[in-house]
Amino acid sequence: MFINGLLTPNLPHVEKAMDLATKRQAKITENLANVNIPGYKRGDVDMFAVELNRQTAATGNLARLPKPRMGGKKNEELDTLIRFDGNNVDLEREVEAMVSTKLRYKTLTFIAQDEFTKKRLVMR
User: Fold this and answer.
1) Is 17 contained in some domain?
2) Element (H or E) spanning 11, and its range?
3) How big is the CA angle at 94 (ends 97 and 25), to the nearest 5 degrees?
4) Total domains in the fold of the chain
5) Which structural domain, as residue segments, surrounds residue 108?
6) Which of 1-10, 11-20, 51-60, 70-79 is predicted with the least confidence, judged by mean pLDDT?
7) I need a labelling partner for 91 at 20 to 30 A (CA). Which of 36, 82, 99, 110 fits?
């Protein structure tokens, strides 16, 4: 176990960031599925934790990561977009968030692949 942490110290951070990106993508998909449901309030995953993962992976600092918040807190900017039926899902914003999260996940995948490549080189 110590060897794994020594050879790939950033991998646990990348793994957590990928998990958060997956959870955010699921929440965005749920928002899109409910775009026409009266009274539905959009939810999101706190991406601060994803950014913290990226920073700690870049610096190598081991930080305790906050748990992602799902759904409970409203974005003040989105509160103004509530429609007459009480739904506050904005289709364009959700698609933009989905694309952004997909690109973030793809980047994290490349980082993970790089960590495994380094591990293979050291083992040789």
Assistant:
1) yes
2) helix 11-33
3) 60
4) 1
5) 10-118
6) 70-79
7) 110
pLDDT tens digits, residue range 17-26? 899 999 999 9
CB count in 10 Å sphere of residue 101? 22
Assigned domain for 108 exists? yes
Cα–Cα distance, 69 to 31 (Å, whole number) = 15
Asked if 43 and 27 touch (Cβ cutoff 8 Å), the reply is yes
Cβ atoms within 10 A of the Cβ of 108, count? 23
- Calpha distance 36→69 (Å, rounded): 24
Name the nearest CA neighbour of 16 among 42, 43, 55, 44. Answer: 55
For residue 29, the number of C-alpha atoms closer than 13 Å in the C-beta half-sphere is 8
Domain annotation covers residue 104: yes
Q: pLDDT, tens digit, for every residue of 71-110?
A: 444 444 444 467 888 899 999 999 999 999 999 999 999 9
Q: What is the pTM of this model?
A: 0.66
Distance CA 82, CA 15 (A): 35
Q: Is residue 103 part of a domain?
A: yes
